[in-house]
Amino acid sequence: MIQHRLPPLAALALTAPILAGCASDRVVVSDISSRYSRVEFSAAADGRDLRTVIQGNPFGTPGFDQAVTQIMNRTYVGPATRFTTTPGPTAKRDYFVSLVFNPAPDVVPFALCNSAPIPTAAPNPNRITARAAFCITGGEATAVVGYVDNVKGPDDPNFVSMIQHMMLSMFPY
User: Cβ neighbours of residue 132 under 8 Å, at least 6 residues apart?
Assistant: First the structure.
C-alpha cells in the first residue's frame, strides 16, 4: 500500500479553511516568499526576543499591545520565541513582526516592513482587519491578513482565535 503524505505547507493550506470555519474569524495567507524558511525563523527567534511592532488599537483600550503579544506568545509556532514590543539584547535587529489593526487606507505587505508609521482608523470592534508580516531586513518573508467582526475586546475568544490563526499562517512548518 502506497501512502501519500502532504508537504507541511499543503497540509496547512487544506486545514486553514476548516480551522477558520470554527470561529467567526477569517485568515488569508497573502504571501509566503522564498525568503521564509523554518531554519531562518529559528535562527531569528529561537530562545530570543522577537521585536513586535503593533500599530492601531481597534478597542481604544490601554494595554492592547501587551494583550496581543500575550496571545502571540501562547500560540505554538515552533521555536521558543518571545514576541515583545520591548525587545532585549537577545533580539536580532534584522528580524521583526509587524501588525497593524484597521489600516486606513489598506496597506501592502512591503509597507508593513519599511518601519514607517501606518495610519489606522478610529477604534471599531464591529469590524477588525489585521495585517501582519514577518520581516527580514526591510522586506516581508511572510504576510497574512485576518478579519473578525463584533468582538468585545482583546480577550474575546473570536479575537484571540484570529490572532492565533494569523500566527499559525505566518509561521508555517
Answer: 97, 98, 99, 100, 112, 143, 144, 145, 146, 166, 170
Q: Which residues are 101's β-sheet partners? A: 130
- Measured between alpha carbons, how far is 34 from 142 in angstroms, rounded to an integer? 9
Question: Torsion angle, CA of 63/65/70/76, rounded to 10 degrees?
Answer: 170
Q: How many CB atoms lie within 10 A of CB 13?
A: 15
Set of cell numbers at residue 87: 525587545
C-beta of residue 81 within 8 angstroms of C-beta of residue 87: no
**Residues 163 and 144 sit within 8 Å (Cβ to Cβ):** no
Q: What is the mean pLDDT of each run of 10 residues along the chain (173 residues)?
A: 43 42 69 90 95 96 97 95 97 96 89 90 92 91 95 96 96 87
pLDDT at 24: 66
Q: How far is CA 140 from CA 53, 77, 90, 108, 114, in A?
A: 14, 18, 21, 10, 9
Amino acid 129: pLDDT: 95
CB 130 within 8 A of CB 55: no
